[in-house]
Amino acid sequence: MTIQRLLAQMTVTDLDAATAWYTALFGRRPDTRPMHGLVEWHLSDTYGVQVWTDPNRAGHSTAILAESDLDERLTQLARAGINHGGAQNTTTSRILPITDPDGNRIVFTSPFTGTDH
Question: Domain residues for 80?
């Protein structure tokens, strides 16, 4: 028995508003709407992000996404009009924390490059 796929779930109050925000974040529409109140972005064959409507639990989710090019992600977020506090250096990597309109936290992370640290 082997787990073959992981979907991080971000819980929101308003699916239409959240779908618009996550569409801007990922630069494309959801891949699927498997049931009422749920949309999914398949970021690869083995992982993705679900956005689920549940007003009682909204705003308490966190997803950590390893990014291949954090500087390009910063550029994409600026083009999409998504506010953030910029990339931060940690002891082992760079991170870019952002928050969706419900307060869910998404953290993009990337290893240091030769000029980062």
Answer: 6-111
1 inside domain? no
DSSP notation for 34-88: EETTEEEEE-SSSEEEEEEE-TTTTT--EEEEE-S-HHHHHHHHHHHT------E
At 39, which CATH number? 3.10.180.10
pTM of the shown model:
0.90
44 exposure class (CB count in 10 Å sphere: 0-12, 13-18, 19+):
exposed
Give residue for tokens 């979907």.
7
Report, as an integer, the average pLDDT of 32-48: 96
